[in-house]
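Recall that a protein's primary structure is simply its ordered list of amino acids. Everything else, from secondary elements to tertiary packing, is in principle encoded there. The following example makes that idea concrete.
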Amino acid sequence: MGGIELNIKIDKFIGLTLIVVVFGVLLAGCTTEPPVEEERVILTVGIEVEEGGIVEVEGEPAEAGEEFMFAKGSEVTLEAEPEEGYEFVGWDIGDMTSPDLEIAINVYEDITVQANFVDAEKEFKVEYENPRQGVITARYDDESVFSGDMVEAGADVEFEVIILEEPRGYEVDNWLVNEEELAEEDELIYVHENLGEDIEVTVELKETAFFAVEIEGLTYRIDEAEEKVEITVDYVVINEGLVEDTQDIEFEVDGDIQDEEEVTLEAGDKYGEEDEEGQFELVIDKYDEDEYELAVISEDDRDEIKVKIEYVTGELKVDVIWELPPSAPEDVEAHVIKVVEEKGILIEWSEVNEAEEYNVVRQQPELADEGEWRVVGTAPAQEAFYIDDEVEAGRVYRYAVVAVNENDKTSDYSKPTEEVSF
């Protein structure tokens, strides 16, 4: 990998300030302040290789060994320009990195900046290791990347972790690349930009809480004297996670928070079964015939279920709007098939009405390094089956299936199949 190294040094000198005092048109005299120490920054450009690209400093090409001077704290613009046949894969700026071709830095101390270029035809190995509680999938340019694949330089590779065990009991703690933790990377998806070296990606998960909310029912009472309708919303909250947590449960009407309640639950506990627990109230005019959209949500469970209501001619009309993840597939079975056209293991399951597609995951229990679940393929909604032809004679496998709906919400994993030997 080629690069251009920028060494930034600080040069100090003494400046002299003159102060002139004027009375009317008469010059009365002058004095001098003590010397003021100022600082300038010298930017030194050193080219590591003759090929790869060039760097422009404030719009001017930088030659090897050329020095630029800037006041301390100045914003300096650097731009990398790869040569034909090369890819720019990022800057190293002290302890920081950046994938952008053009960057602006504020210089306060001696630093080294390096622009990295690689041969565009070069490829790097992408490896990843699954956590105990889930599987990692990787994609580049809409194609799957399997651990150990070679991927072209400069690629942006997307990694996603799918949590298998107690999916609502774990969340991403951090991603690691070549055993180095990535700051502020704690989402289910991580994108490694501008691939410029062999990488091994892992993810660490941590136990978490998950407050699931359900609306249990609605009742109403008419206050004739005040000409008001009092609508009571009954709800329950269940901590489906693995640790205790405290969260605000919010009551929203047409997207605006009307009321909230702080709830603390240990793992597996439920709130909302005792008298006067798990209730919010909405008061509307007796002759109000507008529609209202109600939602009860936790910090975890956002917009999972809503209720649309309308009070018309003395009756409350209720319409439930479901935005829940699909149900997990059931009756998942695996069978070996060996026919002229096809050979492999056939996985079948019962259709899920809300599904747009299915993800099929596989495990090889007898292999220590293959004992984790891995995604092996997808099937469209109209096909509740999948043939795994990437199997080896004498190996033992088992499978599970995940449903995905049109909103990309995923179900829990199905009950795994029995082990099957090919």
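The two ends are 44 Å apart (CA to CA). The CA atoms of residues 126 and 199 lie 5 Å apart.
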